[in-house]
Amino acid sequence: MLDKTLRQAKDNIVEPFVIRLGGSFHPITLTAIGTAFAVFAALSAFMGLYIVGLIFWLLNRIMDGLDGAYARVWNKKSDLGGYLDTMSDFLTYTIVPIGFALHNPTMEGLMAVAFLLATFYINAAAFMYLAAILERRNTTKANSSLTTLAMPVGIIEGGETILFYCVFFLLPNFFIALFIILGCLVIATTVSHLIWAIRNLD
Q1: 4, 62, 68, 74: which sits with the fewest CB atoms below 10 Å from its CB?
Q2: Chain-centre distance for alpha carbon 197
Q3: For residues 37 and 60, is the Cβ–Cβ distance under 8 A?
Q4: pLDDT band at 140 (very low <50, low <70, confident <90, very high)
Q5: Is 123 exposed, middle or buried (0-12, 13-18, 19+ CB in 10 A)?
Q6: 83 near 149, Cβ under 8 Å?
Q7: Which tens digit of pLDDT belongs to each residue from 86-99?
Q8: Please, which residues have CB within 8 angstroms of residue 99's CB and are 6 or more apart in sequence?
Q9: pTM, whole model, 2 decimals?
Q10: Which 3-state string (H, E, C) describes the chain?
Q11: Which residues contact residue 31 at a Cβ distance below 8 angstroms, ignoring those fewer than 6 apart?
């Protein structure tokens, strides 16, 4: 729900900075650095170093915002860059919860992380396949009304997920409950997209 507003604010903040970086390197470099920060965040959660993990998590999200902006500003956008950025996001959102669950593994914690990651998997599969259908329809029926269709805003999008992960690090003793809450909200988002698809696709 917050993504549109946050994206506009992010672009205004980030663009002057990426201009100062110069255009001498590839944006994939920023993606790789951000992925390394994600690994360190997950390892920090695993070791119980939650404040350190929060710092690495925020650095990861900053780098995730920089790579796309850098590519746009310096005209270095590429399909490979977008693909690797998406893969990095999936890796990040997977390994950080696992780090929490493995710090002091219990059946409840492992079940909670399995539930959360299952909701991510189902939601991602449903969303991406729906996006692929719309892309195909927009390509083959460029003059149809389908080009004006937009999927509904989800209850849980990137901005909300970032905030939840910050809370994981700030309230690690409650990670099981937080995982379950986030997972339920992801399910609600998936259902909203399913309802949209039933109403708009034939």
Answers
A1: 4
A2: 22
A3: yes
A4: low
A5: buried
A6: no
A7: 999 999 999 999 99
A8: 41, 42, 43, 44, 45, 46, 53
A9: 0.85
A10: CCHHHHHHHHHHHHHHHHHHHCCCCCHHHHHHHHHHHHHHHHHHHHHCCHHHHHHHHHHHHHHHHHHHHHHHHCCCCCHHHHHHHHHHHHHHHHHHHHHHHHHCCCHHHHHHHHHHHHHHHHHHHHHHHHHHHHHHHHHHCCCCHHHHCCCCCCCCCHHHHHHHHHHHHHCHHHHHHHHHHHHHHHHHHHHHHHHHHHHHCC
A11: 63, 64, 67, 81, 84, 85, 88
Give the total residue count for the chain. 202
Q: pLDDT of 63-93, one tens digit each? A: 998 888 888 888 888 889 889 999 999 999 9
Amino acid present at 110:
L
Which tokens belong to 106? 């219990």
The CATH superfamily of 3-200 is CDP-alcohol phosphotransferase transmembrane (TM) domain (1.20.120.1760)
Q: With the C-alpha atoms ordered 126, 1, 135, 68, is the resulting torsion angle positive or negative?
A: negative
The proportion of the chain whose per-residue pLDDT surpasses 70, expressed as a percent, equals 87
Of 159, 155, 166, 157, the closest CA to residue 189 belongs to: 155
